[in-house]
Amino acid sequence: MSLRIGLPQWQHPNWKRAGLHTLEEYARHFNCVEGNTTLYALPEAETVLRWKAMTGEDFRFCFKFPASVSHHAQLRHCDDLLSEFLRRMDPLSERIAQYWLQLPASFAPAQLPDLWQFLSALPGAFSYGVEVRHPEFFARGEAERALNRGLADRGVNRVILDSRAVHASPSQTAAARDAKAKKPKVPVHAVRTADAPMIRFIGSDDVNDSAALFSDWSARLQEWQAAHSPLLFIHTPEMGDVFPLLHRLWPQIQPYSDGLPPLPEWPDQATLF
To answer: What domains, with CATH codes, occur in the chain?
Structure first.
């Protein structure tokens, strides 16, 4: 088994000077991508085929279920929406590492039966993940036990959000303030409920502080990748500034990911302009 490493996107205007213009170029350095765009809109059929053409057989996507399913319908009476999403993504079916739900903070423990019904209706050919945000799912009480037990019984991964670095940072940049407003401040519970745990690590503007907090994950990732297939996605408040954090973390994580080369000497953001 092996760790897959990626970012929440494969393009950014600031990356062009580093030679990253397209998904094809991104896929030379990373073996998966988080795939956030599907939360907001379905891609055109031609776009999906283009994504397939730009990636190799070993590359993997982790697409979010659309917000029309997870947020607006709250998993109820959404069979047509779900079918359209899976049909649209079908050309990439062999390159899906995980489809995952990002549930809103309003999705409460009382709605777990809706989650179980939704998951039971999904095709069995894929791996799935669920990210929750309601505080009761982090209180180590019966609600969290019921969530973890239900996911484990169904072989579904609990997506782990680690936003400690960004919320601990004193930075007052616009990107940092925006990240603090949008990223939930929830406890980090490193729980593996299935074979492909997903970790979403949200770094801060400070590489040293972010790397110090990430060190908690090194032993866990080493343990998990020995018998499972964990997924790691690295975020920063301003994704155009992600290179310094990547360079700091890469020696810790690259050995656990089969086939990923060392990172190029991408320039620091200050030298890009």
So the answer is: 4-271 (3.20.20.410)
